[in-house]
Structures are given as structure tokens and as C-alpha cells.
Amino acid sequence: MPKISNKEVLNIFPLFFETNLNEKHGADGIFEKLGRIFEFTDAFIYYINPDSLQLKYSFKNYSSYEIDSTFPFGGRQKKLIYSEDNYIADDNNPIIKLLKIQGSECNYAISKLTIRSTVFGIIVLVRNDGKIYTDEDLAILKTCACIISYVIKDLELSNVFKIQLKALKDGIVEKNNAYKTIKEQNEKILEADKVKNEFLANVSHELRTPLNSILGFSEILENGMYGTLNEKQKEYINEIRVSGLRLLGMINEILDISKIEAKAMKISRSRFSIDVLYTEVCNVLAPLAAKKNIKMIKDYEEDFEIYADYQKMQQIFYNLVSNAIKFTPEGGEILLGAENKKSKVILSVHDNGIGIDPKYHGKIFAKFVQLDSAYTKKESSTGLGLTITKELVELHGGKITVKSEVNNGSTFIITLPVAD
């Protein structure tokens, strides 16, 4: 049983959005809120890499593992991580054995962390007082995990703005030294730019905080935790959540381009297969494709590995494939190609949609550009998706090109150098 009543639990949920992530205290705020609801001696948050779990935050009394420690997993463990939403475990559980956090007859509650139906981590609660977690504990933990997922995403993006503002301030000093003869004019320009970016940071924060509340509570209502909904209510709640996710995606795009402009975007390479990359992108976008009866086909002779930043490659192909779905009529096809040559890797996304007039090929990667067509008018967008995609490709030392004609579909081609 949880430490407090369901009504008291509901009062604690908004407090999650007041927590903070930083190098000194980590996720102490999140664990403190969880400690009001559940009994536990240790608690951990892990991120999922292609072939390992990575410890990101911990509240530990007995574990000796340091933050960013990794734990490589096999097929059986990977299947368990992705297939089970949440469950109660003991010392014999494959995931607990992998993480090596078991004590003497401990009991564990495990729940997935997800954003837009994509699993990016797990949260593990541990108790060694001889008592076990209950199904009621699991139901509440699942809801907490939904909220914590958005809190972590929101707070990590806020840290991006701190990096950006620091880079801006550093840039002010460098420019003042370089252009002493026009110091006064430059200071005015840079101060105005600083004010603009600080305003953007504050507005984005003010937007994300209530938006995360909307998403968290719509998830609670949709799960039926506080009462069964009729079909019309479920439809409205789903529309609230989908619209909120779309708005959050637009805000995140603005934050991503801000990070790129501040030159604060870094890449962390690892080895992974093209098949794993394409499969996960297709799984995330399957509901959108299904609505238009569009087939997504992996079109290459054999699978192979590349050495790149997995999360950023996911973002690249999420942008390209979602665009292809958006501009392809019902019943169309999207082909995901891959070719491994000696000195380079060629990846592509081809659709048989409305196409792009050649005169616009040089403009579509510019910021805030949205081509005027009947399809684009139906879709909300920041006009930053392809700009971010181009920047992420170039961070890998590669380039992106497009081949397209009106009414003859489009092919976006990414060429990456082979990295060791």
C-alpha cells in the first residue's frame, strides 16, 4: 500500500513540476516527492542506450555505482525492458541481476519512462524492510513515471538554455574585444540580443510548465485512475494529449535550434545497426502512418552498423519520415534506404508524395521556411524541422541533399563519412 491516500497522492503530482535537475543535487527533488508516496531505501533512474542501461540519477543507501555507469544487456533483458510497462520484481529478476543492486531479499518496483510512446528509460524503487510492493503501488508508480518523463525532458531542456545564455555572454566578451572601435554600438546590439534570448527562455519555461501539467493530468484521466471515462470523454482527453504533444514538439524544436545556434550541441557516438534505428523510428511513427494507410518499408540489401550519435540519428529520421507521412497522400509508400560503401554511408528517405518544386530546393533547409501548399496549410509547424536535421547531419561531418519534382515524390539523401 502507498504511504498516503489516493487523494493525497493527487495533491503531490503538481509538485513534481517544481523540482530541479543539476550536477550537485541530481534528481533529489523527484526522489523526495516519490518518498512522500512510496516506501523505499534506494531509487534509480536509468536511460536506455541501444545495448545498455545508463545510470543517470540515484537516491542510494547501499549501491556503489557512480552516475553514468553503464550496464550492457542481452536480448532477453532488452525484450523485458521494452515489453513490460511496470512490474514487481525480486532478486532473481534479469534486470535486477543486470543492474547488480540486489541486497538480501529485497523487493523492487520497476516502471518505464516514455515520451511520445518512445521508451527512453526506467525507474527502479528498492525496499529491504521485508515488505513487498502492491498492485496499487504499481498503478500509482506508472502515473508518476508518466509525469516524471515529461519533468525530466522539460528540465533538461531548461539546462540547454542555461548553456546557450552562457555562450551568449562569452560571445559578448569576445566581440567587444574584437571590435573595440565600435564598442558602444556592439554592446547595444548584443544587449538587445541577450534580452531577446532571455525573454524566449522565460516564455518557453512559462509555456512548458502548464503544458506538462496538461499532459500529465490528461495521462492520469486517460488511464482511468480516478474513474472510468465514456467513449466521448476518452476521445476529448486523447485530443487534449495529442494537441499538447504537438505543441511540446514545436517548443522543443525552438529549444533545439537555440542550442545549435549557441554551438552547445554535442554528439556522443556509439555503434548501432541501421535496422535498429529504422525499426524504432517506424514504431514511433506507425500510428501516424496507419491513419493515412501509408506503408513504411525498409529498402536495403543487408543490415550494417554505423558509428554515430544514436539519439540524434533518431531525431534526423523522425523529422524526415514524419515529413514524408505529412506530404504523402493516403495509400502511399515511404522507403528507407541504406548503402554501405568503403569511405561513406548513404541513407535515404523516399516518398511518392506531392514533391517539391526544384526552385525551392535551396530554401527548404533555411529557418522558419514553410512552402505554400494545400498540404502545409493543414499542418502546424515551426518550419525548423529540416533546419535542425541539416545541422545534426553536419555535426556528424555529413551532408543532406534532396531530389524532388512536383507530383513525383521526394528523396532526402544523407551522406556520412565512415567514422572509426
Q: What would your notes on this structure say?
A:
- By secondary structure, the protein is an alpha+beta fold.
- The protein is built from ten helices and 13 strands.
- It has helices at residues 6-12, 28-37, 75-83, 94-99, 135-178, 183-222, 231-261, 274-291, 310-326, 385-395; strands at 42-49, 52-59, 70-72, 86-89, 107-115, 118-127, 270-273, 295-299, 305-308, 333-340, 344-351, 399-404, 410-417.
- A six-stranded antiparallel sheet has the order 3-2-1-6-5-4. Strands 8-10-11-13-12 form a five-stranded mixed sheet, with helices on one face.
- Helix 5 packs antiparallel against helix 6 (183-222).
- The radius of gyration is 23 Å and the shape is globular.
- The termini are far apart.
Which structural class fits the helix and strand makeup? alpha+beta
Overall geometric form: globular
Percentage of residues in strands: 15-25%
Query: What gap, in angstroms, lies between the N and C termini?
Result: 52 Å
**Are there runs of 5+ residues with pLDDT below 50, and where?**
372-378
The number of distinct helices, counting runs of at least 4 residues, comes to 10
Radius of gyration, CA atoms, in whole angstroms? 23 Å
Q: Could you state the order of secondary-structure elements as H and E?
A: HHEEEHEHEEHHHEHEEHEEHEE
The major β-sheet equals: 6 strands, antiparallel
What is the averaged pLDDT score?
A: 79
Helix content: 40-55%
Q: What's the total number of strands?
A: 13
Strand order of the largest sheet: 3-2-1-6-5-4
